[in-house]
Amino acid sequence: MKKRVFKCFTNYEKEEIWLNQMAAQGWHCVDYFPCRYTFEKGEPGEYTYRIQLLDQVPTHVESAAYLEFLEEAGIQAVASSMRWVYLRKKTADGPFEIFSDRESRIAHYRRIIYMLLPLGLVNLLFGLGILGRWEPINIFNLGGAVLLAMPMVGYYRRIQALEKEGQIRE
User: Fold this and answer.
1) pLDDT band at 132 (very low <50, low <70, confident <90, very high)
2) Side by side, which strands form the sheet with 84-90?
3) 56 pLDDT above the threshold of 80
4) Of 30, 63, 93, which closes a domain?
5) Local confidence band at 10 (pLDDT 50, 70, 90 cut-offs)
6) Contact assessment for residue 67 and residue 85, using Cβ atoms and an 8 Å cutoff
7) Beta bridge partners of 120
8) 131 and 86 fall within a common domain
9) For 126-142, what is the mean pLDDT?
């Protein structure tokens, strides 16, 4: 039995939590298209899900080699969207963490910020009318810039907290 769910997230960590809650209910993600998830009914809690932003698109040689390495470790890529990849591992096979240390987590947050920053800046510039004549419709661009800024600020704060934590431990 399959079902589709339409839901949008601006925070991949919240998205991961939701995917794992769905898996705990026996709904396992088998496909993703922006804001549309396809689930298959299965055994509750069978899989643990993680989401990662790759350095390159999944078809790139480096990304393909990395995904093959994960596959050998029992981690399956169930879907991808642009550079985002949706991963799952059987819960019975043990804990599933992609980022084993503070530095790799910080690098991942930075990749996300660097991906969102150009989009936010372009929306801000159009919204302010700098890249063309200002029109009332540009308010939507300002809204887009704000929507993109919110997760960037959140990830920046996480980076700061992790760096501070690293300084305390040293």
Assistant:
1) confident
2) 47-53, 84-90, 75-81
3) yes
4) 93
5) confident
6) yes
7) none
8) no
9) 83
User: Are 85 and 116 within one domain?
Assistant: no
Strands 84-90 and 27-33: unpaired
Considering the domain architecture, whether residues 115 and 56 belong to the same structural domain is answered as no
10 and 86, same structural domain?
A: yes
Nearest-angstrom CA–CA distance, 114 and 144: 16
Tell me how far apart the alpha carbons of residues 160 and 170 are, in angstroms, rounded to a whole number: 15
Specify the DSSP element, H or E, that contains 3.
Answer: strand 2-6
- 9 and 87 share a domain? yes
E strands, 20-133, in order: 27-33, 36-41, 47-53, 75-81, 84-90
Answer yes or no: are the C-beta atoms of 3 and 39 closer than 8 Å: yes
- Quick check: 167 pLDDT over 90? no
Statement to judge: residues 54 and 114 lie in one domain: no
pLDDT tens digits, residue range 14-51? 999 999 999 999 999 999 999 999 999 999 999 999 99
**CA–CA dist 160, 53 (Å, integer):** 20
Q: What is the 3-state secondary structure of 4-39?
A: EEECCCCCHHHHHHHHHHHHHCCEEEEEEECCEEEE
| pLDDT given for residue 170 in this prediction | 62
Same domain, 45 and 114: no
